[in-house]
Amino acid sequence: QVQLVESGGGLVQAGGSLRLSCVASGRTFSSLIMGWFRQAPGKEREFVAAISRTGISTRYADSVKGRFAISRDSAKSTVYLQMNSLKPEDTAVYYCAADTSGSLRPRLRRDEYDYWGQGTQVTVSS
What we know:
Number of strands: 11
Structural class: mainly beta
Helix content: under 10%
Low-confidence stretches: none
Number of helices: 0
């Protein structure tokens, strides 16, 4: 079992920044591929960013490329999502996810992840 706990959400004005954190426990952190997804009201959960087990490879949704950055800290078993130049359309519940497959590549599909956090709300006001 893998437990994921997100934090760092909140209310921010358009153009502002937030950093989300997700602490993982229950498995060796370096064995986990980590990802961030988001779900806005009335919409499906969508991919935001993912990072490989080593942290060398990252992938981003086109909508956040150049504004968001995913990173991981093995010493803290934590994955981060730095969000800059936030827009009202970034408003959503953000979920951290972990994949235990052992693949060396970041995962992009929701069904490839085995474990999910409880989510943290991000609201961007215009």
